[in-house]
Structures are given as structure tokens and as C-alpha cells.
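Run folding on both entries below.
>entry_1
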Amino acid sequence: MSCRMTLRKTKAHFSFSVLGFLFLSQWASASSAPLTLQDVFQSAQKQSEALQIQQTREAQVQEKWVQNRGMLLPTVQVLSSYQYQDLKSQASLLNSRVNMTQPIFHGFGEWAALRAADADREAQGYLSKQAVLMLYQQVAQAFFSVLAAEKELKNLEELLKLTQQRQAELQQRLKVGRSRKGDLLATQTQEAQLMAQKTGALGDLERARTQLAMLTGVSSDFQISLSGPNPYSVSRVEEFLGQLEERPDVLSGKFAVISAEESQSIARAGHYPGLDFGANYYLKRQSAFWQNVKWDLALSLSIPLFQGGVVSSKVREAAERQREKEWMLAQTRRQAERDIRSAFQAWKASVDQEKNLKQAVDLAERNYQEQTHDYRLGLVTYLELITAMNTLQETRRAYDRTQIQSWNHRAMLEAAAGKVSL
């Protein structure tokens, strides 16, 4: 009986161990899955100081809107005064009252200030979105730099491996007198050059990985995969130019113009009379004449007659500020169009170049195979063979670089048009 119980416990323990092992294996595989561009971009947003600064600016603008809204609401306060007269009479007066003041009309300046604050709030919100787009461009640039560096290192290692294989083959042929020592020296020279290039490529890769890790906050042992907007979807530049007015910086500029326009109304309100409603409730009043008066209501009217031309100057200043914002908006639109056209041309050129290089790789590979076959038959020299091999590898390196550039330029194009999912 005890043996059966022991056997059951052993089986149960074994089952839990297997389940635990499977769970840990799945967790480890999930945690070590290659990161995509969207993954590192989301990680970068969590630690970006630039985005945190924009959030604080949004909060500041929001509070300014609250302050301007408060200008439309009544003000309630307790006012107290203690008056002590000369020493002969030794009289003192203590007055205390609850005062309420409600603005009624001030040339609609308060309403204009509220609309301006609302436009500023919208403008700052779009500036925050523009900061996210700029961060996306930085992350995409660093992301594809790592991929390009990894691909370059892999190609160099492959070319180095082929060179070493050729070197071993030459050493055997040299022993039987079928190759020249100069060919071996040429191969050894190329091997040394490739080793130097590999060292440089390792440094470039390490710098690219460090930059991406610092920018996004991912661990230093991260793995990434080629991802991002599809660079091979057929597009026309008009599709991206049509998104120009929806770019966050352009929208922010539009609201900045609205805010500047309302600033003129704020300044112009200084020409109008001011009307306020006031009410007082007296808590304590030491005056024989007013002792029985507990409350009063009042309307206050102020009519500006002459202010030294200050108000007119403020109106002209606000008008110039509006013109400045309009010119800045035009400048932003022009820059946005320039960014989109430049990014589109770079993307289209890299895609077209990639197609041509793909064909060149196929031809270079066929040429290398033919040269290898002819070399074994003694129909071509070793120089022709090594030239064909180097041409193939260099063409592959150019093709891989251009392929990464196609993905990178497409991501830059999407960001330039503001089409990135934020």
C-alpha cells in the first residue's frame, strides 16, 4: 500500500515538474521573441523626456484655460478692516463683510480670452502628437540602423568564410603546383582586409544597439526583426500630400492663428465700458449711521476716456502677432510638403534600386557559379574567380543595405505624412 502511495506521489511530482518546465519554456520563448518596430516605439514612449515635457506643457495650458474660465465667474470674498483713530479720541472701527462681484460686460474680452485659451489647448495637444511623430522617426532610424549593421556583419562573415575556404583550396593547389603563390598572397591580403572590416562592423553594430537601447529602454540583449510599414505597397505622392493638412504641426499652427485672432478681441475690449454687479453682506459694522444696514447691491460702470493710446497699441500688436502666426503656418505647410516629397523620392528611389540590385544579385550568382566551374577546368584564372566572388558578395551587401533603406524610408514617409498610428 505504501509503495502505491509513493508511486502516485512520484507521478504527481513528475507531472507538476513537466508542466512547470513547459510553462517556463513558453515564457522564455515569449520573452526572447524578436521585437518589432512597434514594440520598441511603445517602449520609447514610456521613457521619453521630450514627451513628458510636452505633457507638462499640456497641463500648463489646461490650467490657463481654467483660469480664463474663472474670470467669467463671480468672486466671493470676506473683507475686514480695522481702523484706529488719533490718540485723543481713541476711537476704533471694525468692519467686516462678505463681498460678491460678478463681471457683466467688459467688451466680451473674457469670452475672447476663453476661446484663445481653448485654441492654445488644442494647439499644444497637436504639438504633443508632433513630438510623438518625431520620436517615431528617431526610433525607426535607430531600429533600421541596427538591422543594417547586423546584415552588414553577417555578409562580411560570409565573405570571410568564402575567402578562407578559397585560401585553404589554394594551399592545396599550391602544394601540387597548380596555383601561384601570388594568388595565395592576394587571398591572404583580402582576408586581412575583411578582418579589419569585420572589426569596424562590430563597432558599428555595438554603437547602433547602444543607441537603440538608450532611446527605447529595452534590455541590451534585445533581438529585433525586420518590420514596419510595408515598403512595397504601391503609392503615389498625392496620397501623402493629401494628408498634409492633417499633420499635427499644421493643425497646431491653425489653432495658433485662431488664438492670435482672439488676442485682438481681447485687446479691443479695452475700448469698451466695463459693467460689474456687486453685493455685500455686513457681518460687523461700527457706524451709527449704517449700523442697521445689513446688505447692499450695486452696479459699477467704468467708461474709458483716455489711456495714453495703450489699448490701440495693444490691438496693433495683436494684429501683428496674428500675421506672424499666419506666416508661421504657411512656413509649416511648405516644410511639410518638402518633407513629404523628399521622403517619397527617397523611398521610391530605394525601392527601384532594390529591384535592380535583386536582378544584379541573380546575375552575379550565376556568373560566380560559371566562373567556379571554369576555374576547376582551368579555363579561367584565379583572379577572375576571386573577382566574380567579390562582385557577388558586394552586390549582395548593396542589395541588403538597400532593402533596409526601403523599409526605413517608408517609415520616414509615413511619419512625414502623419500617418503613423500614435
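>entry_2
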Amino acid sequence: MATDLNTCEVFKAEGLKYFFEGGRECALNNLNFSIMSGESIAIVGPNGAGKSTLLNIMLGYADKYEGVFEFMGREISGWKPSQMARVRAYIPQENETGLKLTALEYLKLSRGAPHLTEKSEINKYLELFDISYLRDRVTATMSGGEMRLLQLIFALLRNPSVVLLDEPVSFLDVNNQKKFFDGLKEISSERSDGKGEKMTIISILHDLNMAAYYCDRIMLLNKGEIVKFDSPLDVINFKTLGSIFFRESLTREVKMKEGGAEISAHVICGGGAGSEIMEALLSQGVNVSAGVLNIGDSDWNFCKNNKVAMVEEEPFQKISDENYIKNLEYIKKADVIVLCAFALGKGNLANLKFIEESGMILGKKIISAFSAHAELDFTGGAAGPLLKKIGENSERFLTPDEFKTVFARVRDSLKKQDRLS
């Protein structure tokens, strides 16, 4: 009996465990989940969380697991490679290199023999991804972004039911990232509307904003276990990420210190990472501002509840030029800039650039929590140089109590410099 791809569980795990060779270290521990046909799923988590191991099991490459792991209703270890190749496609992290074929010649091989793929199909995909100009160019001369889009077309021409992606856009610029996922989403929708077959897309991603924007659900892994597997809004928040990295911080109303503010601080935060910090500042009579914060974020709610001036942006969108300028103005007016440790994606990477472009140039006092939390960097390494530079020019803290001590020292230093009114 044929599998109904519109309603089936594409992947199902029950008590899934995987041990590295030797059996001593557990890479995956008691995973239980199901992924239905047509879903778009992101797998996220810090390095060593088990993302690649789980993907290898999904690909059928790692069959020495314990427990149950089914692919389309059958134990995946029972599938032959040739059978899996007919229904699923895979795009690894690395691009194809050294090929001396034109794009057309390369894509004609997507179904094995060149005659099985029509030129009209190829042209359709090249136009969709806006790379028709590559049709007769040799692949070895293409940029990494161009070749990555060509790899995606190669996979889609095979009409797979399932597409597995391993950090597919980590090395692409913003425009090509958007082309990649917009095109994938459009093809999946066309297939659903036309043939009725829904394409299932599973991606390992480091960019949380990208995951939230394009995926139906996000699986957050840590230390080989599922921390949360739910909608983007239920996963990408401080309460969930804090269960891995920090203790939970609750939004609360703060009692303000009597008298006018003698010092101002701009807090760059998100996901609840700044609530306790802002509470400490407000209770000491500090004039606080914050940004750029996503509307609905827990730090955003804290600012609303406590009438803290802030710059706000639509959720999971890149910071607009207007809000970029607004945030710079707050930084210029502040005596102290506080950088909290929050999840960094390419959408909010500009928050770090604010500090580099304005805070350090103007000689602002910077207090940063980020030096010890590089695991919250989901930018594919883009944040690394900025974090290093900020770390070299800032006072550091790990906990809210440490922040209070550091802030008191910075405040005294500013008083001695007669920078306060």
C-alpha cells in the first residue's frame, strides 16, 4: 500500500538514543518527536547539541541507534539508499567544487540521465531564483552564493518529498539567503496546490530570525536532548533559551528611586535578558532607554510596564534604517551602554554594530555580558569580530549581582570625570 504523503508522519522517534563509537558518550538521549508531511522544521542549538547526529540519522547514514526511528512509517534502518534517494534530497554545508560543467549541464544530471530533465524545467527554476544569467556559465567560476542556489535547484528538480538542509545559508549574503528560502517556500506551495503532495523541509540553522520567519516549528537541542519543539514564538524567547544558559527572569514592575536621574544608560537586550538589569538601574534612579526590541518580546513588555523609552521593531525582521538611527541617538545621549547576553541572529546583528559605530567612537562606558556567552551567537560567525572588539573595550559581568557591582564602579568613575550633571 502506498504511503499517503499528505498525512503521514515523515519522521517518528521514540526513545531515540545514539552513542558515539565506543559507547561511552551519549550524543542523543531519549528523543521523542514526530514530523508530519508538509512541515518546515528548523533544528537549532549550541555547538555539540546533537544537531548533526540527528540529521545523519534522518539521512540514513547513522544506523547504530537505539530506540525507534521511522521514516514514512518504516524503520529507517530498513530503507535501502536507492529507495531513500527517490523521495528525499540533501544539501550539505559544503558547495560542489571543481566541476567543469555549465549550469545547464550540471542541472541536466539531477535525475541521473540528462534526457530525463527538460530544459524548460531548468529555465523555470533559474528564473525563479533570478539566476538565469548562470545558465551557460561553468560552475567552477561561480560564487559560493550562486553555487548554493544551483545546488538547491538540482535538488528540487528531483521532485523530492523531503528536503534535508545542513546550515544551507551560513555563508550566503542576505539577498541570497532570502532567495534561497523564498524560492524553496514557493516551490513547496506550488507542489501542494498542484499535485497535492506536500514537501517536508528540515534545516539545521544558526540564524534564529531566519528559523522563526520561514519555519513552522523549531526544535531546540542541548546536550543531546530536546529542550523545546514548538512554534517559533514558544521557542525563541528568554524563558526557553534561559533554561539552557541563564536562570529565568520574570518581568515585574519596579519601584523607582525618588529624585531626578543623575546618569543615563542605554540597554541593548532582548528575550528577557535585560529585565533584571533594567530593574536594577531603575531602582537606583538611572534614566534608562533600551533597543532595538521586537514587539511582544519580554524585555519589550518590561519597558512598556515601566515606561522605559525604547526603539521597537516588528518581530523577526531586520532592524530598519529608521530604527537604526533612532537607536544611535539613544546611545549618543547615554552615559553608559549595557550589552546583555541575548540570542544573536543576523536580523539583530546591528545591535552590536551600534556599539562599535557610536558607543566606542564617542568613548562611552560599556558594560557587557557577552564575552562568556558566545554560544548565543547564531550569526554563523558574523558576530565574532564585533563581540571580540566590544569585549576588549568594556567592563564585564555574568550575573545581575555582578552587574550591580560593575555598574557602581563605572558610576563612581564617571563622577570623578565630572561627566555627570
